[in-house]
Amino acid sequence: MDYQTKNGHLLFGGCDTVELAREFGTPLYVLDEEMLVENCQSFLRSMEKYYNGRGMVAFAGKSLCCLEVFRIMKREGMALDVVSGGELYTAAKAGFPMEKVFFHGNNKTPQEIRMALEYGVGHIVADNPVELALLEDISAELGKTAKVLFRIKPGVEAHTHQYIQTGQIDSKFGFALENGEAIRAVEQAKTLSHVKLCGLHCHIGSQIFGTEPFREAARIMLRFMKEAGELLGAPLHILNLGGGFGIRYTDDDEPIPYIEYMADVSQTVRETCGALGLDMPEIVIEPGRSVCGPAGITLYTVGNVKTIENVRTYVSVDGGMTDNPRYALYQAPYTALVANQADRPADFTATIAGRCCESGDLIQEHTLIQRPAPGDILAVLCTGAYNYSMASHYNRVLNPAMVLVNGGSARLIVKRESYEDLLKNDL
Ligand code: LLP
Fold this sequence. Notes:
By secondary structure, this protein is α/β, with parallel strands linked by helices. Helices cover 31% and strands 25% of the residues. It contains 12 helices and 21 strands. The protein binds ligand LLP.
């Protein structure tokens, strides 16, 4: 993995990470604003290039949700995908333009649906017939019309961890095509006067490397788009193809430049529309991991280093599964290094352990890092996505702070939790 160093210290966003750890404490999430912005802009540029700007790039808020990140997304011209009242509320507080918000979820509560309609979110991505009925009732009551996309399972199996595959029929998300659920939902929508079906959505999974699953999904979705438009008597004009673009966590990962996804998929969309006699729909994509993943790192302080002869060496850090549950959940690979020895060879095999009362609380097993000593700063790279947003309070461990770095300066964007914060809802 490429990284920059200065005086033997890891640099990130132009900042000395050892200094950051000293100034802000550890564990610490560090987010590089320039990289975040560049990732947004490269998706936006390719949307411009391949779809003549007739599309939207919606940041998947679940990958990293906090006010400042949403403000940056707003400023950069991104749209937003939210999946809960909490993410929606964060978007509202960040002043995000609601017409650019897509509201997802496989089991939205009536309160969340009401909230979304009252806020005036651009599109609600409907998941099931019960939700459609709720949407109709609540919209009628509020005197509004809900603009809706249908979440479709295109039946495409992406090659990724089974917990983050979502396109196949055995998934809790959306309407299946194979068994007629999806077309029945179009029939249902036809009977509703406060729900307007505008388009379709799919998301086939996450951390996907090839372009073919996306192309296949686009073909299937367009075919159904035609069928649904004919049944409805009005063509659908939005096709949201979700996110899922893979990133490099370790040298074993070979991600394709995102522009290639866009080039390949846009060609498929164009060809398929041509063959079906469909007008080109407006295209939406929803990258999360690929926007914020590489833009984040986590810094920890090494505590004890425990070598068990002929077994392994545990290097314990002051965080763990509470700030990064991804190894515990998915055996997710990461690259780690000792930030204050970043120029030294990574020739020490370590299992990086967290501090929870849980044997599975590991950040990485049998990984090569510099030989660590207590007090060293350990950096884990590529933690911008699905770390802060998946943090927990197990063992009442405090959630870390987050700093935004840019060209050598750093500012706090999420405060470190305090013990009082932990008790604020306890009665
Ligand atoms: N759109 C929808 C509807 C999604 O469900 C997701 C992710 C995305 C977009 C963004 O996908 P991305 O570009 O980030 O791959 N917690 C797991 C990932 C779960 C992804 C859930 N949905 C992990 O840590 O790997």
